[in-house]
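Customer escalation, tier 2.

The customer says the design service returned an amino acid string that "doesn't look like it belongs to this structure." They asked us to rerun it and document both sides in this ticket. The original structure tokens are below, unchanged.
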């Protein structure tokens, strides 16, 4: 199978549909300056038509927002704080 696992190839496939700012700008340039169709932009870039449509409709470049990470200690914070205060 070429040494790739299914999970890795699936991850690579998802990354292909993710747009960075440069790709977003290029898609919008192709649409609004070159006046290309959504289908033609999708063909040239290799992105899905829905991804191209989303980029064209979006007024702002894409940005990645990570959800706040939870600590493994969160359930125990009250108890840890109580014990630390008791030691003082």
């Amino acid at each position: 199978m070429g040494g790739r696992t299914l999970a890795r190839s699936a991850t690579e496939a998802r990354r292909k549909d993710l747009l960075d700012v440069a790709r977003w700008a290029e898609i919008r340039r192709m649409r609004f300056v070159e006046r290309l169709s959504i289908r033609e932009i999708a063909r040239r870039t290799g992105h899905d038509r829905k991804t191209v449509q989303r980029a064209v409709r979006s007024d702002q470049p894409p940005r990645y927002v990570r959800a706040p990470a939870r600590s493994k200690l969160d359930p125990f914070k009250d108890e840890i704080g109580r014990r630390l205060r008791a030691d003082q």
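Tier 2 assessment: The sequence is consistent with the input. The chain has one domain: 1-62. Residues 1-62 form one domain. Sent an explanation to the customer and offered a walkthrough call.
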